Each structure stands twice: as structure tokens, then as C-alpha cells.
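User: Please fill in residues for this 264-position structure.
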């Protein structure tokens, strides 16, 4: 069966532990790799997830987990910290097994909308603001800017509130902080979310990623679809059921058995 540790590299964020019989979600510090000695106890597999800018730290954590005997997969995504935690928790709640957890995580990452509201664009490196936006950012801009990381990344000025459209579904999560009503409405318009929910403890991670005063925004559909079609087969190295015979942890493919009675 196996047991999974899903570690999210997210400095300064509150601990987001979520534990069930076969999976645990924990927050990891990109600069502190010491927790693995305790996390590996009773675990068989690990997924390490972090921001693209922390890829070296993600690889380091993955290597340490592998050194302790865990089968490891890792992901470094161009997402903000709140989005990574939301994707990890969705995976922990919806993955039908340890072997399919990486596929569920990939589906969640592909389906979510991630952005941020920023009062200025000086700290942005991806997506890169235009020169005009940089220059305008030195002046007081009433609405600030909405940054979109997923789909077609872009930076757009928030100019006015938009009326909520019918047919919206899902929730828009936001970090704490002052969010103008026009920026909230524009984020709902871009994400398609029906309502907005504040998540405590992510104001500092949002500022670290997007700049002072930033508010991160994440929308995840209620149902992102099945993780991977069958048939699922046992990994020859770690034993868990994996899609299409390729193990996302061990990176090995199960060899097909020759048909009985086949000629040599």
C-alpha cells in the first residue's frame, strides 16, 4: 500500500499538516533540510513540491529523502506559495492511492488559476511587466495590478470593478492583506470563482514572492477530473500501483511479460 509524505517548500507559511492513513502534507523550509530524518519514519514515498525559483532546494530535499530510502518524485512549478499548498492539500484529499498521487497533483496544478494583486510591479520577474508599467508603478496607481501566473501569464492594471457573472463555481482563495474591491472582482472574472475566502498566514509568503503588500489569489475547480486512466500496474521497484506502467517515483517502466508459447 505505501505511505506518502507530500512536502511543500514554503518559507514563513503556517504549518499546513493534513494527515490520513496513507498520506501526510507538511510544510518544508527551502533552507532547512533537517526534518526528513523524522518525516521518513513509517513513510515509503515522498513528493517534494516547490516554486520554480526554489528548484535547487526542491532537488536537495528530494535527494535527502531518497538517501533515507524513500521513493521520491519532485515538482518545481511557476506558482505562488498558496497555490502550491492548495494543490498539495487537494492531492492529499483526493488521490485514490500513493502511486496515483503525482498524477492527481499534476492534474490539480494544470487546472488551478493562480495570480496576485500587487500595488507595484517593481519586484516582479515572472511575468515580466512592461517598461510603461514599471514607470507608472513609481507613481500612485489607485487600483494596482493583477498578475496572472497560469494560462497566459500577464500583468494588467486594475481600473474598475466588474459585475459578477452568473454561472461561477468554486472558491477563490486569497492571502490576507488589503485587496481593493476592483481587484477582487477582476480576479473572480479571470478565474471564474464564485466566492472569495481569506486564508490566514500567507501574507508574508505572498510578499516574498510578489513584493510588499501583495495578495496572492488561487482558484481550484471543484472537480479537476480523474488523475490517470487505467490499467494501473505495480511498479517493479517500489510496488505501488502506477498508471501506464511508468513509475513517477522510481522512473522505471514495468517490462511486458512475453506471451506464453511464443517462439524463441
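Assistant: Residues filled in for all 264 positions:
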Amino acid at each position: 500500500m505505501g505511505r506518502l509524505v507530500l512536502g511543500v517548500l514554503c518559507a514563513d507559511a503556517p504549518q499546513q499538516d493534513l494527515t490520513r492513513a496513507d498520506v501526510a502534507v507538511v510544510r518544508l523550509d527551502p533552507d532547512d533540510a533537517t526534518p526528513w530524518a523524522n518525516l521518513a519514519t513509517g513513510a515509503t514515498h515522498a513528493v517534494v513540491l516547490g516554486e520554480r525559483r526554489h528548484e535547487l532546494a526542491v532537488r536537495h530535499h528530494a535527494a535527502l529523502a531518497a538517501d533515507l530510502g524513500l521513493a521520491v518524485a519532485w515538482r518545481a512549478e511557476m506558482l505562488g506559495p498558496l497555490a502550491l499548498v492548495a494543490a498539495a492539500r487537494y492531492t492529499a484529499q483526493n488521490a485514490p492511492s500513493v502511486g496515483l498521487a503525482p498524477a492527481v497533483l499534476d492534474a490539480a496544478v494544470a487546472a488551478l488559476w493562480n495570480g496576485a494583486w500587487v500595488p507595484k510591479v517593481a519586484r516582479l520577474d515572472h511575468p515580466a511587466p512592461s517598461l510603461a508599467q514599471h514607470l507608472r508603478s513609481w507613481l500612485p496607481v489607485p487600483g494596482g495590478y493583477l498578475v496572472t501566473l497560469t494560462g497566459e501569464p500577464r500583468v494588467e492594471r486594475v481600473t474598475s470593478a466588474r459585475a459578477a457573472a452568473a454561472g461561477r463555481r468554486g472558491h477563490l482563495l486569497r492571502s490576507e492583506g488589503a485587496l481593493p474591491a476592483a481587484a477582487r472582482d477582476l480576479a473572480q472574472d479571470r478565474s471564474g470563482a464564485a466566492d472569495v475566502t481569506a486564508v490566514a498566514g500567507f501574507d508574508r509568503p505572498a510578499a516574498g514572492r510578489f513584493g510588499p503588500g501583495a495578495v496572492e489569489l488561487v482558484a481550484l475547480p471543484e472537480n479537476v477530473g480523474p488523475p490517470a486512466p487505467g490499467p494501473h500496474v505495480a511498479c517493479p521497484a517500489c510496488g505501488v500501483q502506477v498508471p501506464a506502467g511508468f513509475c513517477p517515483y522510481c522512473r522505471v517502466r514495468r517490462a511486458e511479460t512475453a506471451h506464453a508459447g511464443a517462439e524463441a
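For context: Confidence is low (pLDDT under 50) at residues 131-135, 257-264.
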